Amino acid sequence: MPIAEIDLPVYPDECDAFGHLNQASFLTLFERARWEMLLRGPGMDVFTRNGAWPAVRKAAIDYHAAAFPGDVLRFYLALTHHGRTSFTMRQTARRVRDDALVATAEFVFVCLNRDGRPTPVPREFSEFMTSPQRGTADTRRYTINGVNLAVEVQGTGPAILFVHGYPHDHRIWAHPVATLDGYRRIAPDLRGMGQSDAPDLGYSMETYAGDLAALLDTLGVDEAVLCGLSMGGYVALEFVRRWRRRVRGLVLMDTRAEADSAEAKRARDVAAGTAREDGAAAIADAMLPRMLSGTTHADSPGIVEEVREMMAASPVAGIVGALGAMRDRQDATDLLPGLAGLPTLVVVGADDLLTPPAEAQAIVAAVPGARLAVIPGAGHLPPVERPAETTAVLRDFLLELP
Ligand code: MLT
Prior knowledge:
The protein is α/β, with parallel strands linked by helices. It has helices spanning 23-40, 46-49, 123-130, 174-179, 205-219, 231-243, 262-278, 280-291, 294-299, 301-312, 316-327, 357-366, 382-385, 387-400; strands spanning 4-9, 53-63, 72-82, 86-95, 101-112, 139-144, 147-154, 159-163, 184-188, 224-229, 247-253, 344-349, 371-375. Helices cover 38% and strands 24% of the residues. The chain has an eight-stranded mixed sheet with strand order 6-7-9-8-10-11-12-13, with helices on both faces. Strands 1-3-4-5-2 form a five-stranded antiparallel sheet.
């Protein structure tokens, strides 16, 4: 969730001969939005007061649409990484008039003292940026294994832990999280995704699963139903490998148990290069056609755009980290026969091109007692493309748990 929303008008002197907001002005407006945010929070002098100057170390801006004099741009600001002396902010600019996405940017800052040496990020600033009140009423922030994670928690009752895929965030679970009354629904953004911190290094299936176990500890949850989609399924399988005792039921959605083939591993490295060179939007554009079903593409342009934006807003460090984690993940097929006795539901979109129904059938065949649910009309993201049908299948499974 954004920490702040700041509206700024575009002035004629900021535009080029054709009226477009020019590149230098984009940088200026992004910076002005940050100062405005401080003005409304700990004060514009929070850094000078603390003898720490936030020096920009890296700035990456993706331009999506032109902006003209008189347009009012709404800047959304979010913290995606917070270290001892550095932090990363993601900023998005949308035109207020039609909500068009105009630009997205990521800025990495290092705090320097008067001698130009790295110095800790001022505590007042950190508290302002990471305070739980910064999220929405239902999104909380927890520091887990040294990384600040954004987590949506709703309801009371037996716990369900929802694990999103790549490059997504917890919002893919919006429908079941909003509607599965009678359960405590826990939906984190994995490290590097959504509004969670995106450290440069330290991504693996073991780390993601370890974050989830530590999150459950923090929330006082001993046992949960684990529901993972795609990469979230890889994480769920790793979690089961290590903490099976804590898993009351398992839902594997649009995922697979095998490790990457040599060709798939090479494709991960190519994608990481694309993300580094061309940013998250290039990854989103490349994945979108195969991410959703033909029906969704034809009938639901709003969903298509939401998913594209979610992917395009993923931090590059998190994308690169997830690609490495997926490339290096263990094969989990050996685990499946041993899951006898663990209630397991396998769900797949009938038109999933990324992890087709055959992958789901292979898991069902290998896990004794597992059941299969195929969601018609859905591609790789059933909870987004066919939310009511997907939640109904989940509810039936939950109601049958011993
Ligand atoms: C996902 O949706 O998490 C990814 O498509 C999984 C993958 O690339 O293996």
